[in-house]
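User: I'm putting together notes for a lab meeting next week and I want to include a structural view of one of the chains we've been expressing. I don't have a solved structure, so I'd like a prediction I can at least talk through. The sequence is below, exactly as it appears in our construct file.
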Amino acid sequence: MGDHMQWSQEEEENAKKQATENSVVKVQSEDQDKYEREASKYWNEFYKTHKNNFFKDRNWLFLEFPEILPEKKRQEFKTEEISSEHAKINNDNSFPLKNGMFEEGEKYWKKYYGGGSTAVQGYAYNKNQVKALTDNPQGKTCGEELCKVESFPGCDATYRILEVGCGAGNSVFPILKVLCNTPGTFLYCCDFASGAVELVKSHSSYNSAWCSAFVHDVCDDALPYPFPDEILDVILLVFVLSTIHPDRMQGVVNRLAKLLKPGGMLLFRDYGRYDTAQLRFKKGHCLSENFYVRGDGTRVYFFTKDEVWNMFNVAGLTEVQNLVDRRLQVNRKKKVKMQRVWIQSKFQKPLLSLHNPEETSKRHPCK
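Assistant: Thanks for the context. Below is the predicted structure for the 367-residue chain, given as C-alpha cells.
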C-alpha cells in the first residue's frame, strides 16, 4: 500500500481515456428506469446473498472521524495507542489511521468554538454564547420541553448520531462497542434495504436502549424520520451517496442538513473520480457520466471533491475537510496493482445566530 500517491500526468490522462472509453455505450433508457425504480430490490438481493460477510467492520472510523465521539470520549480515545492491526487497509472501504486527521479536527474546533467550548442541551457553543443562552429561562428547559412535545427513540439522549445506509452494521457495531457505556449517547441507523436493517436488528450486539435501526428511503422527501429535525450531533454518510442517482443527490444532502443541530457535523466518504473500480467497468454499464451499474444491479457514482463541496455548500454546510486520497494497492499474489481514489470530507452546520432572537426562535427545536 502506498499512501497519498501523486499521479503523473500520463497516469491521469490514461485514467481519463479509460473512463471515456467505457462510457461510450450507455445502458438503455428503459433499463435505467428499472434500476432506479427497483434499487431497493437489488440491494435486498445483495444482502440476502452476502448477509454480513461482504464488508469488514470499520474499526478505523474513530481515528478518521473522531467527531463521531462526544468530546470527553474523544479525548479518552486520543490517548489510547493505535494498534498495528488498525493501521492496515483490509478492504476497499478503509483508510489507514492517521493522527493528522484528528489534529486537523481539533484545530478547527478550537478556532470556531474556542478552548472554552461547551454544550447546552447538546448544542456546542463558546463561553459568550453559553451565557446568552443560559440567561434565557427558555433555554434552561429546552431538552425537557422537546421530550414533552414529542416522544421518540433517543429522546432523552444528549448526543445523537445517525448513520445513513447502515448496511449490515459494519459501522454500527464498532460505534456501539465504543459508546454503549457512554451515558447520554444514542445511535440511529437506517437503510432502504429492509434485509440490511433486519441483519442489524438480529445481531447479538443490537440493543434498542441505545440504538434504533429503521428502514428509510433518503430520496423520499415526504417520508418522515422517527425523530425531529435539528437534533443530530453527527451524520455518517460513508459509501452511500454514490449509490443514488446524481439528479437526486442534492435533495438528499439538503434534507440531511436539516436534521443536524447547529454545530453538528456531517462526515462523508465515498468513491473518487477515476478510482480503479470506475476504470474496470466494461462498455454498456454506464448509466450517465461517471455513474455506472454493477452486474448485480447496484449502482455507483464517482465524485470529484469540487462536486462534493458544491453539494454540501448549497445545503448550507461549511467545509472542515475535503480531500482526495489516492493510494496504490498491490495484490502480490495476483500481481495486480490498483490505483484507489477516495473523497473524504467533513462539513459542519453553522451555529445559531444569537444576535437575532427571531431567527433563533424559528430554528430552535423548542420554540
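A couple of points you could mention at the meeting. Residues 81-106, 108-144, 353-361, 363-367 have pLDDT under 50 and may be disordered. The chain has one domain: 9-80+140-363.

User: Perfect, that's what I needed.
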